[in-house]
Amino acid sequence: MPATVSVPQMCTALVRNRLMSVDEARTAYQQWQNESADVEDADRFRKFLVQREFLTDYQATLIAHGRSEGYFIDSYKILDRIGQGRMAGVYEALSSKGARVAIKVLPPSKARNPQLLARFEREARMALKLDHPNVVKTLDVGSYNGLHYMVMECLEGETFDEVIKRQKKLAVREAVRVVHEAFLGLQHIHERGMIHRDLKPANLMLVPMGNDKPPKVTILDIGLGRTLFDESAETEKQETQITQEGVLLGTPDYLAPEQARDARSVDIRADIYSLGCVLYHALAGQPPFPDTNMLSQVIRHATEQPRPLRELNPEVPDGLQQVMNFLLAKDANQRYPTPERAAKALQIFLPIEPSVTPITEVMPTVKPESKPVPPQKPAAASDVPVGRLVSSKVEKPQPPPIKKEETKPAPAKKEEAKPAAAGEFDVELVAIPCPPPVPPKKPGAQRSLLDMDRRDFIMFGGGIASALVTILATAGLVRLVRSKPPEKPKSEENSQDK
Predict the structure, then answer these.
(1) Which pLDDT does position 238 carry in this prediction?
(2) What is the pLDDT of residue 367?
(3) Minimal CB count within 10 Å: which of 80, 81, 204, 237?
């Protein structure tokens, strides 16, 4: 579109609207005079300012048409309009510290509605409490000259919707990875008492991380639906979104059955259903219920089962279909209760990064001059490295044999695991430290009288018992020797006297 103001007027507007200082505007005009054959061509001057990066195309277009506002929102310099079509209230801006940010401005038509304004302020301030790698950060909330706005981090990358449109079907691991990270971010939202209500591929941003790392998934538009910033939502019929009294209910392709009935009564499980639909779309190449009729989609979400994933993508494992059945359950009570539980269910389908545990963390330290007592192997188990089988059924420990020819202390008692009937107890593999090594006794070394082992105690007890028996036998013999002879009967004494 050709410019409507002259070159000198444009230079004046640059300074007046704080896009350039006086010196910067003078320098730009001098360069223009040196390089241009027609210094009065305002349209070429506009393009020159953009090519030399004095202005963005958005700023230069406003200047060329004599606009005196729209360059700043509070202290934020507007660089470009991000939103397309009806999304006229989203801008890329530069903060006073030079950081690129994204600003959402509530349209004046919405701000005049007390309910929408209250909703915007409430949910925008709640978004300030969110701080998670997989959730877009809200940096500021405020109002300026009648405009109500919220400031968020400006992300570079592409939406998951763009990826799906380009690739049609994603590899299983990549699709699961994206939705798994989204569930982690959704758990943080849930813990802060918020609900998204409009999770879809277009609200998942894939941000490049570099260094051959996969892109990071970031959830956008927390709690603030598109119609809240849509200036034409009140007058035009929405074909891609469902609205009720200006409140966004969701997108039909990813809409939970209960959310279609009453969006105000849903909880986090509606968002879990929506992310399940997103995963289905990424794996199958189409939403669970592809249909051009919005009402038909709503009914199918509530009454029909989607086609099995294996019919649309043979690479999908059976276990993932079972997870999908929980994610897309019609009854919210049959779904995973929290995003964290859903993320754990998807964890097994992610690539496992190998981790090596240092051997020093498992095996105890053994002194070089001695050898540890070897653990006994379980009778009903195969060789198990570093660990043993421990059952909940306690067996009686077997005493170790006593070697008479040695004076070493007996080895420590070991619990011998015995085979048990199936179903008697559960077996758990645990790592336990080996018993401390027993240093051998040096031959010929003198021992203290108190340093007695089991064999010494047995011999000592036997000696005491033998001594007691000898003493008792001797005492009995002495008593028998010293005893008096038996007295004669009186009848014999009388016969002798006669």
Answers:
(1) 37
(2) 43
(3) 237
Among residues 57, 161, 198, 383, the one annotated as catalytic is: 198
pLDDT at 186: 97
CATH number, span 70-154? 3.30.200.20
Contact of 42 with 7, CB cutoff 8 Å? yes
Spelled out in words, what is the top-level CATH class assigned to the domain 156-370?
Answer: mainly alpha
230 counts as catalytic: no
Domain boundaries, the chain: 7-69, 70-154, 156-370
* Separation of alpha carbons 393 and 416, rounded Å: 12
pLDDT at 392 (0 to 100): 39
Read off the tokens for 176. 């699961």
- Bridge partner list, 102: 92, 152
- Per the CB < 8 A criterion, the answer to whether 409 and 453 are in contact is yes
b vs e for 254-278, b when ≥16 Cβ sit within 10 Å of the residue's Cβ?
bbbbbbbeebeebebbbbbbbbbbb
Tell me the sheet residues that pair with 217.
206
Sheet with 204-207: strands ordered across: 158-159, 204-207, 216-219
* Residues 317 and 157: beta-carbon distance below 8 Å: no
Q: Which residues of the chain have pLDDT under 50?
A: 85-87, 226-227, 231-248, 354-407, 413-435, 498
